[in-house]
Design brief:
By secondary structure, the protein is α+β, with helices and mostly antiparallel strands. It has a domain of 131 residues: 50s Ribosomal Protein L17, Chain: A. Helix content is 60%, strand content 17%. The protein is built from 5 helices and 5 strands. Strands 1-5-4 form a 3-stranded antiparallel β-sheet. A two-stranded antiparallel ribbon has the order 2-3. Helix 1 packs across helix 2. The longest helix is centred in the C-terminal third of the chain and has 68 residues. It starts with a helix and ends with a helix.
Length: 207
């Protein structure tokens, strides 16, 4: 970044403090890529919430006060919390169930005035829901997912149709059984009468 070691560390600390304070900052792409792993390391340490973790963060970040603009006094006044306090009390607890990936870089269409450098927005992810391990991939993965879903629907549809056909066939068979049963009972009742008549005829012939 064309800076000395001390200058680069100071720049990184100041930008990290601004990101923790405001939640998002506008900078160049090179600075954002340099700052992102440093901020995520700080958040990972702050998730522990111990005194040792707080000392490690202060050693890397060097705590400072947070100032906000007061409309009544028309001046910047210090808030109740410092940057490290906000990191441990507000920022880190949001990512307790998330194993990394606390920030994102969004490229902006506006170029920097002067040298036309690429500007990006580095911001903290708003973790309002639980972390989802399965994330959507590229176009090939999306196509594969759609293809598998279509195949699953095709395999499920014949089974549903066959089940409906079986239910219809069972209903028809039940109706036929109810219609045939009275006819069979009548035939069985008439059969003994015919048998007795034939027996009497045979007796008369024998006599």
């Amino acid at each position: 970044m064309s800076r000395t070691t001390s200058h680069r560390k100071a720049l990184r600390r100041n930008m990290a403090s601004s990101l923790i304070q405001h939640g998002a900052i506008r900078t160049t792409e090179a600075k954002a890529k340099e700052l992102r792993p440093f901020v995520e390391k700080l958040i990972t340490i702050a998730r522990e919430g111990t005194l040792h973790a707080r000392r490690r963060v202060i050693k890397l970040l060097q705590d400072r006060e947070i100032f906000s603009y007061d409309e009544t006094e028309k001046d910047f006044v210090p808030d109740d919390k410092t940057v490290v306090q906000k990191l441990f009390e507000e920022v880190a607890p949001r990512y307790v169930g998330r194993p990394g990936g606390y920030t994102r870089i969004i490229r902006l269409a506006e170029k920097r005035i002067g040298d036309g450098g690429v500007q990006v927005m580095l911001q903290l992810i708003d973790e309002s829901s639980e972390y989802v391990e399965e994330r959507p991939g590229g176009r090939r993965k999306k196509r594969a997912v759609k293809r598998h879903a279509a195949m699953a629907n095709q395999t499920e549809t014949p089974a549903e149709e066959s089940s409906e056909d079986e239910i219809a066939e069972e209903a028809v068979a039940a109706e036929v059984a109810t219609e045939v049963a009275p006819a069979e009972e009548a035939a069985e009742e008439a059969a003994p009468a015919e048998d007795s008549a034939s027996v009497e005829e045979k007796k008369d012939d024998a006599e």
